[in-house]
């Protein structure tokens, strides 16, 4: 635990000294809400309320924190690999007799999960004057925290695994961003996708994460769980299955990433 706390404190210190972080964390959600969000909401709000029981702005706003939970760890995973190979963690790695690789990963995951939750909180606060139809409960809050943590863990661990096999940063980013952003339902309801594309969306863990968040804050119709599970099972079973799916994927990737992390060499980290 002391080592995990030290890693968390260290990562916070590094992140909070980056000017780009404050621009990305604080300014981007506000700019999005006051431009694109309000414009599309005015155009589509009536249709969204009839079909999904909520307005477009509320539906879209709850997808953005998931975007942050992908982009934060993704943007820093390559630096982490280089840091692990060359920086002070390498010294601890060589001197320590304990298997602390999971602690190193979980520390970064905890930091980025907190930042993603702050982004969600910021959007909720900003949106209150617009009368967003959010609902809150203790179970819902804890579920959202767990889902965002699992999403960050999945992204961060997957990034470490991919850093072993991909040859350039551009292909690395494209491989992750394209399918996850386009098919996860961050920007639109997945229920209108063609059958094959809906199947792809149902396989992507982020679709389940976003659906769970929307379920607890906006309700079942807005969650799109029915579309993801093709109308099978009742809502509670769908939630349980989606959460189990997230947990399994995150755990498997954490194990793989922990094993691969110690094998990262400087020759494998390309700029």
Essential attributes:
13 helices; transmembrane helix; ABC transmembrane type-2 domain-containing protein; membrane; ABC2_TM_bact-type
Characterization of this structure:
Pfam families: ABC2_membrane (PF01061). It comes from Candidatus Marsarchaeota G2 archaeon ECH_B_SAG-C16. One of its GO terms (cellular component) is ATP-binding cassette (ABC) transporter complex. It is found in: Membrane. This protein starts with a helix and ends in a 10-residue tail after the last helix. Helix 4 (64-86) crosses helix 5, helix 7 packs antiparallel against helix 10 and helix 10 (205-218) crosses helix 13 (235-261). The chain has 271 residues and is mainly α. The chain has one domain (2-268). The chain has helices at 2-16, 19-52, 56-61, 64-86, 88-95, 101-127, 138-162, 169-183, 195-203, 205-218, 220-223, 225-228, 235-261. It has 13 helices and no strands.
What's the β-strand tally?
0
Order of SSEs: HHHHHHHHHHHHH
The biggest beta sheet reads:
none
Number of helical regions: 13
C-alpha end-to-end distance = 33 Å
Beta strand %? under 5%
Query: What does the average pLDDT come to?
Result: 76
Helix content: over 70%
The Cα radius of gyration reads 19 Å
Unreliably modeled segments: 265-271
Large-scale geometry: globular
How many distinct domains? 1
User: Which structural class best describes the helix and strand composition?
Assistant: mainly alpha
Subcellular location: Membrane
GO molecular function, one term: ABC-type transporter activity
Main location: membrane
Keywords: Membrane, Transmembrane, Transmembrane helix
